[in-house]
Fold each of these.
Amino acid sequence: MSSRRNELTRTAARLFAEKGYHGTSIGDLAAAMGVQKGSLYAHIESKADLLWEVAREGSTAFHAALDTVPEEGPVVERIRAALRAHLRVVAEQLDVATVFVREWRYLEGERRDEFVAERRRYEERFRALFREGRELGELRTDLDDATAALLALSAANWAYTWLRPGSRPPKAGASRPGAGGLADGASSPETDDLADRFTALLLDGMRGYASR
Amino acid sequence: MSSRRNELTRTAARLFAEKGYHGTSIGDLAAAMGVQKGSLYAHIESKADLLWEVAREGSTAFHAALDTVPEEGPVVERIRAALRAHLRVVAEQLDVATVFVREWRYLEGERRDEFVAERRRYEERFRALFREGRELGELRTDLDDATAALLALSAANWAYTWLRPGSRPPKAGASRPGAGGLADGASSPETDDLADRFTALLLDGMRGYASR
DNA sequence: CCACCTTCCGAACGATCGTTAGCCTCCACA
DNA sequence: TGTGGAGGCTAACGATCGTTCGGAAGGTGG
């Protein structure tokens, strides 16, 4: 893929994340590329192609991140690794992650079906960790693993709303205006820290020792 | 407000939740109302008015739900009540909740500012519970309450993607096609159950007793 | 030197967008 | 009985939408 074409995909990811797919016109994309809108069709066949490409990049990135989680070893460590991996993708490729989580639903036809399947598979991989943890006795044997996985995935899927490339310590907030921000930044120890704090909370809970 | 006007607001909430604000045209709204699109302007001044109204309804509903949480008593019980209240709003007014969580960002100008302020206030109220719990010693005294609140709010804010009016037991999934679904249904014991399961997980964690 | 490929331009297309206008009908109420 | 407001109609507006097209500049490799 030519470098100009890739540049267009990056721009599309950024604008789709910022203003939404339907809120971004071909004209907006062209302006951001410093070009007339008709010129974009030297690179793409349709606007929908761009959404598809960015969404697929998201699928690839998140699955690849999960691939780095070992298949053996203590489940607790693997859950921590999975959460780290997920948050790292969000922090490093915030625009792509945003499209993956929020804008994918404007895909149409087979592409949408294919995306949904990949997304379900991702969640299933995540969930399997909790099920395995319960079955092996490393998590509570009475654990409702579906709910546990849902809780963990909620934190993961919501992260794009507050995680920033620079990865400052989070506020509890979730709403944040446009805030274009920098280009996708490097992951930081802070992102891993945050994932670990989530993991610790999920594992040990918030209740005081006294009332345990 | 006339009944026809209210009907329009309901339709707008439904379509905005289903296809997104920018993905819903005035023509779509008119068709859903069984009317020519020009006729809608007997009720509104602009499409943006509808988004504003639905978003404000969301603010009102979520704040009102939090108002039912007692200001005294065990923090643990209040957290449970807050989570129940939130999920109940999502289950009972799914369309409005979806706009509140996902579509609000297409608000413009002062309205957007006002909405963001209300949303921040909501999150702050939520967060205060965890801070108070730590300060009173009812939660772990070493609790990172900002992260704890973020985790709880993530579950709450993500709920609109999987909670359904009928409120079946959840899958771990998060992606779901259009799925028009029924009109907003009544809340059920199941919704409260789910909130309680989240609360239990948040409080006591997933780790096995053996490894505590 | 020529042929080709990439990239862009400028202009235009039909469609759809949100919104406005004037007119009509019907019903509640004085 | 008459008046007015609520609600809807048809038609049209200017703007913007995604997309197409023919042509031209610029560089690369044969």
Note: DSSP finds eight helices and no strands in chain A.
Amino acid sequence: MRKGELTRQAILDVAVRMARYSGLSGLTIGSLAAAADMSKSGVYAHFKSKEALQLACMERNAEQFIDEVIRPALAKPRGVARLQAIVEHWMSWYSHPGGCLFLAAAAEFDDLPGALHDRMVVQQRDMLDSLARIAATAVAEGEFHEDTDVFQVAQEVFGILLSYNWMERILRYPGAADGAWAAFNRLIDSHTD
Amino acid sequence: MRKGELTRQAILDVAVRMARYSGLSGLTIGSLAAAADMSKSGVYAHFKSKEALQLACMERNAEQFIDEVIRPALAKPRGVARLQAIVEHWMSWYSHPGGCLFLAAAAEFDDLPGALHDRMVVQQRDMLDSLARIAATAVAEGEFHEDTDVFQVAQEVFGILLSYNWMERILRYPGAADGAWAAFNRLIDSHTD
DNA sequence: GAATTTTAAGCACGACCGTGCTACTTTTAT
DNA sequence: ATAAAAGTAGCACGGTCGTGCTTAAAATTC
């Protein structure tokens, strides 16, 4: 019982790493088995279907995101410092080899029905909510104006992150990070004055 | 000779529409043939390979983008008005059924080598350059400060567009458009004051 | 209208897909 | 140590993939 869970996690680690390159749909059980040094049926037995495997990848990826982005940010003091911390770690997150699986999943399933789509939307909403919640601490601490729309802040911060991702890893534009921080600082200023 | 080109274009129209949902990798010749009411080999004969078909889709999509986004913007007077116009049409572009093929391609090929990746990067760069070039007209017209970094503006505008796309079509957040325009206006203000 | 080129379908190929079943080996519990 | 359970591989299935070749129909040119 314990051994099984162990290899299951090992498989998932490989699967997530592969899916960052090929996407969740591009992931195949055959190539995954080869990469994990197992037989196809050996891998398959751990997930009752391909869709279950894909969903498990999404969950595993979300756990990693929490570990690498959310938790480090929550360790910082509430307010702007925490907001800056999450942006910082988020930018590092984007530089994972193969790219961000959240973004890949969003592009893959954005207009297709199904369980994968639904889970993806929930995860995206959770990520946005994390940003909004942290922005709210800046309001509570008196750093942001009382009437700040924290969802607006979340949307704009997310935009900064997304365009950073594009400029950095697709266009390989050297000024991507500087540009992102400049935009971020102006955003903060406009809400603190 | 003429009839062939005609059906080729018809096939491409269907292909692009399908690829908006499934992505360029998810597009298969079998399903494309079915959707175009042709045999697999009939479709295949118009493109010597799957990769060629995918590249042709990218080109066709780019043409449409120029027609629906770039050209309408260029019809507006140089400067902020033109910048606002391109954002407006760009936002409409994103609401195509299935989503934006540029974004899908970027997510699919961002870290994979090959001709599709290379073409995708060029197209993304062209889009960014269009934004920067229009921002430059705002500088030339004296609306933006002399020392404005037009690539910085392009990056930020692109971020606004990307996050709008996410909020609107994935999260279905009703305030997405308002949020995007609020961010846009603040961006303009900070460069004009 | 005849000759020729272009377009499309039929068909077959090897490969790989997701999925199950069966049998054997390894791990766990007694 | 033995019995039970869990994990893994082998193998086979129907299906679809991209790709080519061959042949009939259609469109174009003379």
Note: Residues 1, 3-4, 7, 38-43, 45-46 of chain B lie near DNA strand C (CB under 10 Å from a C1').
